[in-house]
Design brief:
The protein is α/β, with parallel strands linked by helices. The protein has one domain: Aldolase class I (TIM Barrel, Alpha-Beta Barrel). It contains eleven helices and twelve strands. Helix 3 (98-110) links the parallel strand 4 and strand 5 (115-120). The protein binds ligand PBG. Residues 119, 121, 123, 173, 209, 212, 224, 280-281 line the site of ligand PBG.
Length: 333
């Protein structure tokens, strides 16, 4: 009953037939470009572990965002690198802090063409590099730990500062319990009922954020394993996404992307809000390094990875290749 009646290769016989039956489309509007802006720069600074990505000045940031808008990407996600850091990350909710100033600049420049989004986390702003404020343990000699509930107060202040600065969507990437509900309540109490919340719901601790730490000049020593997730835990990722939806997340995210496609597919099947994925710095760096060595076809690997993330269920993908890939896609590859 099978072969020779069934010949799946019939569907692959020519470019025209393959194009007609292709299941998965890449479109520019489903890509979001992460951007780094650093306080006090005169010139953009290349990030050596992320060839092609820079820490922007205010001016080069504006140009990059305009370029992304022209390429048709759906949004930009802003990360700020402050000149001065402290224990509670004061720069994060300072209206004159680098991230908030840059947000206002971009909202004015490209806010009608795409959604200007901001990273809501303390790690770029703290002198210890953790995503929250620290509490000294009661037991002498034991290490300080990240104080969940005290951190929520800092996130609420940061959320209001970002909303006031003109951010359309807050990316809650700190993995504190209750952060979505707490930030939602703070926004609503001040009338910011339209500000969107993107919850980094299933965010796994691990090695793939390495280049990002250079990008934001991270001060972190140690790791984030008391708040980011164990890479082996898929069920827990679904639980986190369900909790975030319950707390009012408009969009949930899985991160990193390619190593966690199973989690992505399962989250997609479990919730009815948009599900996004973050193709992180380490994923970017691996392809760039292999391509630079002539070991892999750069364009092919980029488009294949984006297709795989989309196929697994991502409505939108954050990727450092967003603007470039958007142009390839629009040109029909
Ligand atoms: C936290 C944050 C991180 C990334 C995005 N938001 C760093 C971390 O969790 O250590 C990583 C993104 C990437 O690696 O591309 N503010």
């Amino acid at each position: 009953m099978s072969f020779p009646v069934h010949r799946p290769r019939r569907l692959r016989q020519s470019p025209a037939v393959r194009r007609l039956v292709s299941e998965t489309d890449l479109v520019a509007r489903r890509l979001v470009l992460p951007l780094f802006v650093r306080e006090g720069l005169a010139e953009p600074v290349p990030i050596s572990s992320m060839p092609g990505v820079v820490q922007h000045t205010m001016d080069s940031l504006r140009r990059a965002a305009t370029d992304a808008a022209e390429a048709g990407v759906g949004g930009v996600m802003l990360f700020g690198v402050p000149a001065v850091r402290d224990a509670i990350g004061s720069g994060a909710d300072d209206p004159d802090g680098i991230l908030n100033l840059a947000t206002t600049a971009l909202a004015q420049e490209v806010g009608d063409a795409l959604v200007v989004q901001t990273d809501l986390c303390l790690d770029e702003f703290t002198d210890h590099g953790h995503c929250g404020v620290l509490r000294q343990s009661q037991e002498p000699g034991s290490a300080a730990s990240v104080d969940n509930d005290a951190t929520l107060e800092r996130y609420a202040a940061m959320a209001l500062a970002q909303a006031r600065a003109g951010s359309g969507m807050l990316g809650l990437s700190g993995m504190m319990d209750g952060q979505v509900g707490h930030v939602r309540a703070a926004l609503d109490a001040e009338g910011f009922t339209d500000t969107l919340i993107l919850a980094y719901s299933a965010k796994y601790a691990g090695a793939f954020y390495g280049p990002f730490r250079e990008a934001v000049d991270s001060q972190l020593k140690g790791d984030r394993r008391t708040y980011q997730m164990d890479p082996g835990n898929a069920r827990e990722g679904i639980r986190e996404a369900l909790l975030d939806v319950e707390e009012g997340a408009d969009v949930v995210m899985v991160k990193p992307a390619l190593p966690y496609l199973d989690v992505l597919a399962e989250v997609r099947a479990s919730v009815d809000v948009p599900v996004w994925a973050y193709q992180v710095s380490g994923e970017y760096a691996m392809v760039e390094a292999a391509a630079a060595s002539g070991w892999i076809d750069r364009r092919g690997a980029i488009l294949e990875s984006l297709t795989a993330i989309r196929r697994a269920g991502a409505d939108v993908t954050l990727t450092y290749w967003a603007a470039e890939a958007a142009r390839w896609i629009s040109a029909g590859r």
